Amino acid sequence: MSPLRVAIVTTFYPPCNFGGDGIYIRNFVQSLARRGCEVEVIYDADAWKVGVSALHPPPSPEQVPQPDGVTVHQLESRWPLGSTLLTQQAGRPVVQHKAIEAILAKGFDVIHFHNISLVGGPAVLALGEAIKLCTVHDHWLVCPNHILWRHDRELCVGRECFKCSLTFRRPPQAWRHTSLLEDNLAHLDALIALSQSVADRHREFGLKKDMLPMASFMPNADAQASSTALGSSHDRPYFLFVGRLQSFKGVQDAISCFDDDSPADLLIAGSGEFEPELRALAAGCKSVKFLGKIEQDKLRALYRDAVALIAPSLCYEVFPMVALEAFREGTPVIARNLGPYPQIVEESAGGILFDDEDGLRDAMTKLASDPALRDRLGASGRAALAERWTETKAIDDWLELVRSIAVKKGKEDTKRKIDALFAIESAS
Known about the structure:
Blueprint lengths: L4 E6 L9 H15 L3 E7 H8 L17 E6 L4 H11 L6 H8 L5 E4 L17 E6 L12 E2 L3 E2 L5 H7 L12 H6 L4 E4 L2 H9 L7 E2 L24 E5 L8 H5 L9 E5 L5 H7 L6 E5 L3 H10 L3 E3 L9 H8 L4 E4 L4 H8 L2 E4 L2 H13 L1 H18 L2 H19 L2 H16 L1
Parallel strand pairs: 1-2, 1-4, 2-3, 4-5, 5-8, 8-9, 10-11, 11-12, 13-14, 14-15
Antiparallel strand pairs: 6-7
Pfam family, one: Glycos_transf_1
Organism: Sphingomonas daechungensis
Protein name: Glycosyltransferase family 4 protein
């Protein structure tokens, strides 16, 4: 029997990606390949090139080795800015329509769309003939600026999209005032949200199509805790922040909780456009240390030895991998009571939520002064990761979803392929 053939359509794909969505998609692609699927990825290198400068071309697919079962199609044009702007304005793959259509015509059982904003906009959902899924990795379907962070200063509580787009220096999109989005969402068999918060926010902002919550996961190869022989080499207790340094990530609120008399340090792993402002805020404070980007092996040791991971984001996250990375090392999280974090903390019993700066201070004091509590919460997080957020469970759930759609649509060949994948997994 031929393998289950899956097409992945997305704007960014490593190494041409800026955030966690690309890493998630790569993990998902490689996990499908490990289960025996044949996966082809279509992504738009023009969008990445525009983001980093047209003078820095992406590496060719031949320069980025892929695992067995994975083929990557890198879309490029002679005019990256023009191609990207046309897609952004029209909500259609104006330049790359024929290229995407030709690849999808090769015969797939499943087409799974991810970040579609600049690979083709809503109209890309109409291309291809297969079972169609779409996972949202931000709030772009209801927010032109992706993050429901109005005017780059506050949570969005009401649409001011024209002004807000100008604040983010992005051209307003006329297609959002048409039925283009709803018309093309109708081509999907399932629209997937990685947390209940994402589904709730989309409904709150007027999306009519139902969303199916489906949890994120940690790849099997990454799920084991790091060796106890490794050490962080930091000589004082510390709390850890990991992520891009942007204003809406809320790191400034964490910095405000530290001074020269703090019994623990704040280590900040990451870089970004807001870093100069954060460094200015922390100027002269010996307990706040900026580490820049950290290699994964060293980052794992930093997670493991931290009192807790601090997740102070001011905007609605989707499902941050940093929480699972902390749980993998037996480290609890202290997270703002916003977005997916209430769900993550409730399901894991692996952290503490806070609402304001006083709440953050209290949570840090509680964990720093009670190592037994810290270890108990960390152990709960690690146990939840092993039960709820594994690669095996995520791919099983995905295959079950596709199988149920195949049965409903009478696609017997797709159903048989999935049954065979389950049989192989069971035998192994």
